[in-house]
Amino acid sequence: MTITGANFQTASGVAFNGTLATTFTVVSTTSITATVPAGATSGPISVISPFGTGTSAASFTVIQLNNCSVTVNVPALLSGQTYWVTFTSHSVGTLTAGWIISPAQSVELDMYGGNPFAGLADPINKGPQGGIIASQKSSTLTNLNINAGSRAAGSYTVGFFNGSNSMLKTSGTISYVNTSAFPCPATPSSLNTWP
Prior knowledge:
Jelly Rolls
């Protein structure tokens, strides 16, 4: 986080409600960047120097993060059919998805930013609008996993595509990060099948 103020050129430490930051950088006489340490609690920010300690008038608020893992019950899919799930992550964090099938056959697990299928009469033949941010195709695996890396808060879509024989119901997972203001849901926010 960035701390703004004055006379930071001699800063020797930064504390968040008394908990010292393990890393900080004096950017200029009016700006410091610091990493909020684990265990920090909401309260004032202090900048420590050989000439004394300056404390913020306003409190810093620590936002707790929840690592969400949502189970997706993928319905039976015919050959060429896709099931997609739209979800919202309310914090920066790593996005992953998994899909367990049996037996192994030609399938594809994809993740997109936003909902690239929205409003398309035939989303599969036309193709999604927007690029894939993570994907795995296989005809030999029964456990697929994708990792889209760290992404900004926002809406994302996971597509479960069956490119082979009809399959029975399967199970998937989607993992992402929410703030404490947004509890992890029991199920994703939007579920769709095509055709």
